[in-house]
Recover the amino acids of this structure.
């Protein structure tokens, strides 16, 4: 069987399984998630042995340390996976929820009911923990999922999917509910993106080249999870110690993730009084700074920012700093250079806070809080499958609700249209 | 300027205008809509003269009568357009609505606020009334719109857009908020679909070849408005006179639209008693029937349905009829042959009604009401831009809310992530 044939058969069986998944009871879904959680705990040694195959390949190819870290199924990662499955089992089932119901003048009762999307194609990095998390979220929301993790994690992902499929089979659930593309060939992704008769949405997580490839080739709707060029704007009337706490947290607490700050914007009157000391704190935390002309004049050890810096996602202990004349100037900068992912203002001025919340249309906009809160768990959605940077369907963190759509349901008494 | 350059300039200016549209007050938006409504009334003669150019071209090319009807800016169509603009002005402004707000354990207040999508690319049939309706809805929802109507309506559409742009300009609003692609070239659509840096969503309305072309070429998210193969299922315990009313209304009241019934499914025990008389009523209403083997045995004058008939959207006084053994058989048929657009059950059995509502995942599912109610106005959303058959973002009628997305807003007091 060639790869196109195999993908077609995967997609067809996924569609078939999605019909029965859509009507599975909440109790059965939760039971399955808990059994998978238990099996992962029992099969720890097997999963780590399979993971070791991926790890030794990656080491042989001299992948960077951070890459190897994300690839590793350590005991801690497996513990989190086991806890994560239990957590998804505890979340409310979105399927069948009626989000609103109203009566029409002709007596029709009209409501909107959450239903599964159907079949989700998930394309992601070489992080085997995502394999379990994404499968659990899709399954709980009543969707079949076709997984395509980074090729470097293929052994780990296959082992995890085999384990989940065994549980499905034992529980008399169509095992095509969770499937993986069994090859590392890049061509397989292109083929997958053609199967719009069977797959309802593609969720790609990753860098620019992956997202571009997906948009280039997909005949299926795409909800992209792309980069975060996130800003903190420190307003004229910001509290200096709150500003320092938020700026340090946004940059330093976990610099390698999409909701970390990449550019600091500072109002000139705050800058005059406090920027020197803020720069000192950032330097002490090990952050390299790239500043605008005025910033470079305030302190030593800052290199000049280039035009490119303002739109760069460093994912590292590097920060661009710019002094702005006004909040309008700050908002203009964010609209021009940002990626509309996560942006925060620090201020004690009521009008500035409201203006920033209203005029910055990023997926998460915060007043007096760290950008690091752009996360499904932190915002109260429960577990997340990722953070959408597409404005369509879901903008920002995607939890269980965002893995559903709604249909209209209508209770009539024989009404016809005049 | 070649067409690619011109489209780029249209898309860029649309993006630019969308920033100011997003923060326009409700009062100003409503004022503009009402002035446009007045201007259309004043410019009736001019609009009809421009429309006449399109009509004489279409007549010379022997377009069918129904096509010419949809192309005509009659006094009635203009009256509806004028009333429609006033109606959109009266609808609540979705922009800035906070759809929910909750408090996190760390004290963060987290909410979701509706914001415009940004720039909408609207591709539609040769119906100039859609030009005004779609522009009004996009404008009220704070979006810029780039219109591409059927080439046969180009004179009418250009006249309407010129009129709307004059009003925008007089009201000091960026006239790029409402633009039209000034050429009938098909290549222009392909070019438009590449401009993902400036356009946020493409809404195509039309037949199979248009929708396919759009999915084939678009690098922009697509919300398709595609065909309706809609069913009425008459259950064993249906009231025969209610069934007849609904079946006739769903087929005959306006056969040329996407929410008209194309296939009638009848439970065998209802069929034994009442199908003969129901077929008589359909025949008297001028409907040609194509039946399954059992249906053909019940009455004369029914041709045998082919496999293809079950998935055909006739848009005409033609109906496929099938007798089914059970509600499960009916649901199976709908899942296999339907387009998940609009499906109705007629029944007095509580369990059947609930089962049908739960297991049929079409965009609108009705109990004891005509399929013709799948319409934004009828379901209480106000005016609609169309009926989405994409499961992503909006499934079913798209009103003003569906032309927005949501961002998360967060009110903090200095919170940082641990």
């Amino acid at each position: 069987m060639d790869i196109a044939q195999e993908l077609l058969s995967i997609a067809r069986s996924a569609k078939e399984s999605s019909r029965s998944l859509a009507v599975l009871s909440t109790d059965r879904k939760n039971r399955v998630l808990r059994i998978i959680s238990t099996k992962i705990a029992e099969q720890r040694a097997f999963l780590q042995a399979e993971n070791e195959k991926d790890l030794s390949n990656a080491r042989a190819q001299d992948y960077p340390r951070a890459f190897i870290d994300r690839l590793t199924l350590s005991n801690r990662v497996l513990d989190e996976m086991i806890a994560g499955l239990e957590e998804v089992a505890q979340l409310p089932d979105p399927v069948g929820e009626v989000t609103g119901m109203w009566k029409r003048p002709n007596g029709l009762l009209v409501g909107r009911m959450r239903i599964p999307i159907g079949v989700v194609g998930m394309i992601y990095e070489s992080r085997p923990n995502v394999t379990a998390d994404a499968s659990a979220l899709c399954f709980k929301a009543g969707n079949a999922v076709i997984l395509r993790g980074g090729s470097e994690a293929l052994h780990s992902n296959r082992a995890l999917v085999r384990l989940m499929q065994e549980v499905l089979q034992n529980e008399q659930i169509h095992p095509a509910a969770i499937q993986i593309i069994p090859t590392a060939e890049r061509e397989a992704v292109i083929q997958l993106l053609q199967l719009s008769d069977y797959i309802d949405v593609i969720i790609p997580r990753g860098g620019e080249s992956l997202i571009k490839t997906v948009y280039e080739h997909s005949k299926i709707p795409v909800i992209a999870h792309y980069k975060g060029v996130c800003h903190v704007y420190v307003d004229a009337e910001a509290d200096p110690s709150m500003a320092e706490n938020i700026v340090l947290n946004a940059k330093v607490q976990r610099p390698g993730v999409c909701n970390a700050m990449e550019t600091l914007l500072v109002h000139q009157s705050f800058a005059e009084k406090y920027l020197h000391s803020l720069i000192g704190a950032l330097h002490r935390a090990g952050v390299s700074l790239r500043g605008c002309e005025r910033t470079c004049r305030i302190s030593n050890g800052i290199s000049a920012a280039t035009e490119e810096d303002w739109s760069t996602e460093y994912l590292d202990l590097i920060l661009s700093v710019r002094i702005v004349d006004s909040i309008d100037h700050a908002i203009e900068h964010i609209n021009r250079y940002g990626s509309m992912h996560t942006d925060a203002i620090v201020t004690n001025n009521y009008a500035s806070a409201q203006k920033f919340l209203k005029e910055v249309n990023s997926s998460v906009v915060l007043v007096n809080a760290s950008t690091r809160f752009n996360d499904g768990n932190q915002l109260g959605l429960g577990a997340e499958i990722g953070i959408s940077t597409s404005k369509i369907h879901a903008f920002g963190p995607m939890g269980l609700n965002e893995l559903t759509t709604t249909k209209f349901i209508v209770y009539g008494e024989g009404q016809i249209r005049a």
In short: The longest strand of chain B covers residues 404-415. Residues 245 and 370 of chain B are 9 Å apart (CA to CA). Chain B has two domains: 3-226+389-410, 230-376. Chain B has a mean pLDDT of 95.
